[in-house]
Design a protein that fits this description.
Layout: E1 22-26, H1 31-43, E2 48-53, H2 56-65, E3 75-79, H3 85-91, E4 97-100, H4 107-112, H5 114-135, E5 139-143, H6 154-168, E6 179-183, H7 195-204, E7 209-212, E8 218-220, H8 224-237, E9 243-246, E10 250-252, H9 253-260, E11 265-268, E12 280-282, E13 290-293, E14 296-299, H10 309-313, E15 317-318, E16 325-326, H11 336-342
Parallel strand pairs: 1-2, 1-4, 2-3, 4-5, 5-6, 6-9, 7-11
Antiparallel strand pairs: 8-10, 9-14, 12-16, 13-14, 13-15
Length: 343
């Protein structure tokens, strides 16, 4: 049974279903991609891994870091961009599973570079789908974001479009046996670009205060390890078209700042363009299509062939009417002491 303590919820699954498989990770040189690679090298017996990313320096750095861990020479480093459909098709030949993590992720950068955001997040998702179908990939799962739920910024809108592309792809991939799914969660606690490394960097540089965008701001809390485990467990059970959302706790940004820098002043600097006060991972309008398991929610696809029955037989239930999963109204919270423990 899954661990139902939200602060230490364990999404881990037996990776025997990936034994001997060929697995490609787009954006594989990022924080989550490297954690994913480490887990697969340790537990997916005889699996072959392809790290797909456009940054040669990150490839080089990762190769040095993983040299001792890759004892069976299971890793391949493939320079490429999801914008390049031909390169993707070449990379996906004979691949069994794809984890699509490549994206432009910074809200403010996307706001000021809209063309680039659309090319990577939307057209890149289309390219991944087309290449996966053409190559006969068994399962492809995409990483989404809370910002795709009721989006108020371009990043969120682009990821919502990508989610829709992945769900609809199941209508196209039947002939090749390809299925597609999505996982949706918020900011990962210690990944590059999250607020934790920013606070730590400011403290190491001798800052006398920590910047808070708004005292009311809340966020969901998920660690890199939990994120990796949630993706892999969702990959195992997906039948095609689902959006998987983990049950995780919320925290308040001022509490996080106090946990990291207890002696530092907080200064309110204002919300950045396109930023939300609270994260929403399942809007009320999606509640009619949402079921839950002990450790996750599943937003059902609008696909004629999809059936919730296998999940219901595994103990899933429908959520209550007008349900909304928001970091503001979440029932599970981490306080300052909890955050210090997990940091």
């Amino acid at each position: 049974m899954p661990n139902t303590d939200p602060s230490s919820r364990d999404f881990r699954t037996d990776l025997s279903f990936l034994s001997g498989a060929r697995i490609l990770i787009t954006g594989g040189t990022g924080s989550l991609g490297q954690h994913m690679t480490r887990r697969l090298l340790k537990e997916a017996e005889n699996a072959r891994l392809i790290v797909f990313s456009r940054d040669e320096q990150k490839h080089f750095d990762m190769e040095q870091k993983f040299r001792d861990l890759d004892k069976n020479q299971a890793l391949r480093y493939f320079i490429g961009d999801v914008r390049d459909a031909n390169r993707l098709e070449m990379a996906l030949r004979d691949v069994d599973y794809v984890i699509h993590a490549a994206a432009m992720k910074h809200v403010t950068i996307a706001e000021y570079n809209p063309f680039e955001c659309i090319h990577t997040n939307v057209l890149g998702a289309e390219n991944v789908v087309r290449a996966a179908i053409k190559s006969g990939v068994q399962k492809t799962i995409a990483l989404s974001t809370d910002k795709a739920a009721n989006p108020v910024n371009l990043y969120g809108a682009s990821k919502l479009a990508a989610d829709k592309i992945f769900v609809a792809a199941n209508n196209l991939g039947a002939a090749s046996g390809s299925t597609f799914g999505v996982v949706r969660y918020g900011n990962v606690s210690n990944s590059r670009g999250s607020v934790v490394p920013l606070f730590e960097k400011l403290i190491s540089e001798g800052a006398d205060y920590l910047p808070i965008t708004d005292e009311r701001m809340t966020r969901f809390w998920i660690t890199l390890d939990q994120g990796v485990d949630f993706i892999l467990s969702s990959l195992e059970i997906m039948t095609g078209g689902e959006v998987f959302v983990p049950k995780i706790p919320s925290m308040r940004i001022p509490d996080l700042a106090e946990a990291i820098g207890p002696d530092l002043e907080h200064r309110v600097v204002g919300i950045r363009p396109g930023e939300k006060l609270h994260e929403v991972m399942i809007p009320r309008d999606e509640s009619v299509n949402t079921i839950e398991l002990p450790d996750r929610y599943i937003v059902e696809p609008a696909l004629a062939f999809w059936s919730r029955e296998p999940y219901m037989q595994s103990g899933a239930t429908s959520v209550v009417d007008r349900f909304e999963y928001s970091s503001e109204t979440n029932k599970e919270w981490l306080d300052v002491d909890d955050l210090r423990k997990h940091l």
